[in-house]
Design brief:
single chain, Neuraminidase, binds 2-acetamido-2-deoxy-beta-D-glucopyranose
Length: about 425
């Protein structure tokens, strides 16, 4: 009896650990949430070589997990058609499509830069990548920018860099506003002449429910200095007008390569980032209250305990009360990591385990896109039965070369074990 129980546990453990994907660290990637999946795509895998990534994989947010043992799942059919990093990814309003836009784009076979197409779409229900035909204005090649989508399905992309020398990575920063109407698939470079902001890249962009996009930080102007975090750029998507605000409150170091999430009650939480010479910035985490006028910065008192190390080039997504930080580069050793950090926005604490907000019903179909009824990032309160608060900073070893082998051997073993059990 004891033996067979132990054996079954062993088998379950084996299958679980085997079917999980073990992604290598990465930098300047994208992450989006569709229904209850946090999907990761694009990015740069290895600083010391031109090793980029085209895999698409996800964390299932309907299940609990610990950030030291992440149950990533690879979508084998989801490989991106190109390599791209420092790009932006936006989900369509109906959650059917990921719009992957811009970045440093390389042909997967020749590794040459190829900016001939700027927009790729991923159809979530069928796991297929497409190169859609887009009408309207010419799509300018851009890197280091971020898009947001409004409730009419229009994606707004402000400025960014057009790198013209790909050896020295030099180019120009822009201050234009480009839009992609996702229903008519029309690209438009808005003609605005009044009140234009300084050219800006690597900012954070948050669309407030009132239609205002809040742009913070990043590199500015033609001399590439970092923007003051209190000098906020506002774009009104209803009037198509720029305005500016000087935020008040705590001081926040200028930064780029940081992340932001917008909470349902109007707080923009920024995390990480670095100086222009890739050193750390302070504080690691800060909150901008957009309910106040002018907006106000503050540093939550709990947010320093168990705070992750300084990282940049990571990404952040909000899922109910969890701000989920994925991958990026450590300031300390300048290595790309594959870590996930979890910040509970209700308790303002870093935590190590994720617990889904609603009890998951009996194993529903996991086919992508179809019939998922998971409630999203809404303001509903959730259970926060978080038991552990320590933050592990041990980076999991990156197994670039071994991952597929591990999967194959693992699958082999588990099949053998299952056969044996039968
Ligand atoms: C990154 O690339 C360098 C140079 O090609 C190589 O020596 C190193 O092993 C790579 N690191 C990883 C984690 O793949
Ligand atoms: C961007 O750079 C390319 C060269 O790589 C150039 O041909 C193009 O005109 C530039 N476009 C814009 C809008 O800056
Ligand atoms: C890029 O810059 C380098 C160094 O200044 C220069 O040698 C090279 O010709 C430039 N390449 C292009 C395509 O302008
Ligand atoms: C922000 O402060 C600067 C410096 O004091 C001032 O020049 C600028 O006009 C202010 N901007 C706004 C929008 O109030
Ligand atoms: C899309 O997914 C998000 C994230 O879970 C969710 O908040 C939203 O309600 C979903 N939208 C639709 C139309 O299913
Ligand atoms: C964090 O957890 C430890 C036990 O692991 C506990 O002693 C400590 O009080 C907790 N701290 C907070 C802020 O919850």
């Amino acid at each position: 009896m004891y033996f067979s129980l132990k054996f079954i546990f062993y088998v379950i453990f084996l299958i679980n650990s085997i079917l999980c994907y073990d992604p290598p660290g990465r930098f300047a990637h994208n992450s989006v949430i569709i229904n209850n999946r946090l999907l990761i795509l694009a990015g740069w895998e290895n600083r010391s070589s031109d090793q980029f990534t085209y895999e698409l994989f996800y964390l299932d947010l309907s299940k609990s997990f610990d950030n030291t043992d992440l149950p990533w799942t690879l979508i084998p059919d989801g490989n991106l058609p190109v390599y791209t990093w420092h790009s932006t990814a936006i989900v369509s309003l109906d959650n059917s499509t990921i719009f992957q836009i811009g970045g440093f784009i390389n042909n997967k076979h020749t590794l040459d830069y190829d900016f001939s197409k700027q927009v790729y779409t991923y159809d979530y229900p069928t796991s297929k990548w497409n190169t859609p035909s887009i009408i309207g204005d010419n799509i300018p090649p851009r890197q280091q920018m971020k898009g947001v989508i409004d409730n009419l399905g229009i994606i707004y992309i402000f400025g960014g860099v057009n790198t013209t020398n790909l050896t020295t990575f030099t180019g120009l920063i822009y201050n234009d506003m480009n839009t992609l109407d996702t229903s008519s698939m029309t690209w438009k470079t808005l003609s605005i002449s009044k009140n234009l902001p300084l050219p800006n890249s690597d900012y954070s962009a948050s669309l407030l429910p009132n239609g205002i996009i809040v742009y913070i930080g990043g590199q500015e102007s033609i001399d590439w200095t970092l923007a003051n975090m209190k000098s906020i750029k506002l774009f009104d998507t209803k009037k198509l007008e720029w305005s500016y605000m000087n935020a008040t409150g705590d001081d926040v170091d200028s930064r780029w390569l940081f992340s932001s999430v917008l909470t349902p009650d109007g707080y923009i939480i920024i995390f990480g980032g670095c100086t222009q010479i890739y050193t750390s910035v302070s504080p690691n985490l800060a909150v901008l209250d957009t309910n106040k006028s002018p907006y106000e910065w503050s540093i939550p008192s709990n947010s320093k305990a168990n705070s992750p190390p300084s990282i940049y080039g990571h990404s952040a997504n909000l899922y109910f009360n969890y701000m989920i930080i994925t991958f990026g580069c450590y300031v300390d050793d300048q290595l790309f990591n594959s870590q996930v950090y979890l910040y509970n926005i209700a308790s303002n604490k870093w935590v190590t385990s994720f617990n889904p907000p609603v009890p998951t019903t009996t194993s529903t179909s996991t086919s992508p896109g179809t019939g998922s009824t998971s409630p999203g990032t809404s303001g509903t309160s959730i259970d926060t039965s978080i038991t552990s608060n320590g933050t592990s900073i041990t980076s999991t070893s990156t197994l670039t070369a071994k991952k597929s082998l591990k999967f194959a051997i693992g699958l082999g073993i588990s099949i053998v074990v299952i056969v044996f059990l039968l």
